[in-house]
Design brief:
Low-confidence stretches: none
Number of strands: 0
CATH superfamily: Ferritin, core subunit, four-helix bundle
Distance between the termini: 50 Å
Helix content: over 70%
Mean pLDDT: 97
Strand content: under 5%
Largest sheet: none
Structural class: mainly alpha
Length: about 160
Amino acid sequence: MQGNQQVITALNELLACELAAMDQYFIHSEMYEDWGLTKLQERIAHEFDDEKGHAAALIKRILFLEGKPDMKTRTGLQIGTDVESMLTNDLNLEYEVGAALRRTITLCEEVKDFVTRDLLVELLDDTEQDHTYWLEQQLGLIKRLGLQNYLQSQL
């Protein structure tokens, strides 16, 4: 099915965000594992898997719309150097993905591509309800408990 070129372009921009998130979560999970923070490693590895699923869904939709998925482009990675900066960078990336999803949802509504819109609403729900919310919780715990107590809880 020939899709709207604006939608395909926007989906590729979202794909760049999801691929960057995948890469960032992957390296952060490996860093957590290296530091012995197994609870954080497990959760961030789960986020990596979620982002891989988001990327796969976008690729399938781009192909369905007769577009070409851009697997080369990534938005900028923000690799942290400590737990707090890693969580903050991951949260900032999720905010970026959420904003891009909202823009693309609006575009899909304008061009009446409601199937793509519904897919993106599902991805937005996962981004906000799971990823963003959890990251905000972790940063809140660090503020309330202190970094050392938080880190101890992640062993």
